[in-house]
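Weekly modeling sync, notes
Attendees: S.R. (lead), two postdocs, one rotation student

Agenda item 3: backlog of single-chain predictions. S.R. asked that every request posted to the team notebook include the full sequence so nobody has to chase files. The rotation student volunteered to paste the first one in as an example of the format we agreed on. Action items at the bottom.

Example entry:
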Amino acid sequence: MLAWFSLASILLPAQTQRAADLLPKTDNRDGWQIPSGQNLLPHFEAVGSRKVLYVDGMPFTVLAVEIPWWDLVYGRYEKTFASYDYLYPASEKMGLNTLKVPVKWSMVEPKQGAFDFSYVDHAKHMAEKHHLKLVLNWFGHYASGDGTLYANLAGDVYAPMYVIEDEKTYPRAVDEDGVAHHNVASYDYEPILAREVAAFRALMQHLKEVDSVSHTVVMIQVENEIAVFGWDRTNTKLWRDHSPASNQKFRERGFADDLHYSAWNLSYNWIRRLTDAGADVYPLPFFLNFVGGNVADWMVGGAPGEDVPTYLKNCPNLSFIGVNSYFCGEWRPDNSCAKPSEATVDELRKPFLRYRVSRNLPAITETNSGNSPTASRLAYLAVGQFGAPIFAPWALTDSYPEDFQPYVLPDGTLANGAWMLRDTYSSLSKALAQISYYAGSDKLKVFMANSPGESFSQTEEVNGSSVAVSGAQNGQAIVIQLSDHEFLFVGYRVNVSLENATFRWPMLKNVQVERGRWSGQQWVTEGEPAYWINQSKPGMILQLDVPQAVRVSW
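Predicted structure, as returned to the notebook:
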């Protein structure tokens, strides 16, 4: 437990009293009413100058972690069907509200035109059993390794085998040297486009039939870190498809730059068709994810060059493009992390600022999942300052970039950074709709140390009121002034100071201080918070030692 400073040593004894001695007990009251929506389907609504994800009629932020896919083995799907079942109860214990679950095209269309959604239904059942929502990752194409149709034919297969085995009907992409890559699809030929669009349409039709009431599935990630050939982003010979059909488009469109051509080609001729077809059937929010970096870096993601504006322009049914942003103090030659990240607040903000272009909603679709506090700190900035619709470290059983620090062990127990993320998610969840609604506005401020592990003391104006927060051991807070006479404090391992003339007797009788959470629009009290009144200033000091939400009103 953090050793807090003694408030009695700072305030005169006569001026220091526990609020329980000064204030009356209160009954449960309705929480401050944020606008609810009539459309219960997951969707985005305009709130001022930004858009907010609504789920079941309320503002919502996806607090997730992703599960891997490689234990779902092609040719043995029936036997590996339940490989990740133990991660659902672990996710509930960690405080996630959503789980990111990959769905391979090869799983849902094992034979041409024959669809099998049993795994999707199983994931939905497991999620509902453990009070989770789902983000489904459509893996028709994978680009974080060599190739896009499959990583290996021993079982890590994304596209159906009927596509992989038929190069004549479904031609492959060709590099600048004229070499066709068997594991890389060319999206310049109609047959593969037509087949994947049909499969994605069938998936969305199935979700409409089985989930349009429960809304367990809240968003769809379309593909993963898309690129033309795979992970080798630095090889200029792999920046675009040089197949005959692709070369013809390149000439006809007057392109001179391979990266800009690939961004246009993959977005307009492929992703647009997928998302348009999906939205026509069941218009859930669709998004892409790129890896953040420069095109010369080993880690740069797909959509070559991270061309966010081109994708959003060409794909009107894409809600946003998230960034997979990893932080490390020192990279090894094998691209693993030799030294934990010591990223400052400004460094953590950089991916959001880079992706705040065009109509995009900056979001973190992958980030660190090791023992460092990077994910926990980044989450408060993502959700509170930037209003990210999703925050999702990679992954529950596979830490990156730190090695061998998984959130969940093979026996299902939580380990390593899971506890830090649980503090973060559990605190945010106590007032998630309010935080999601006010994120990025002058009514909300995020407080944390500039660098991980530092003690800090920070004073900010929140909607015209001065609020001071001090903390240590990676404590952090979000402060919202909900109305002229109401504050909400969310966080842990911090002290919060608020000065106001109301905190003086006899006006003090009208002040209510409650620890609790929101359930829908209902505020539910969960005990009394630790706080002190200094009548000489006058002011209030709250101690948020463990994850909690405290509401102060008068």
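Discussion: group reviewed the output briefly. The first helix runs from residue 19 to 22.
Action items: rotation student to repeat for the remaining queue; S.R. to check formatting next week.
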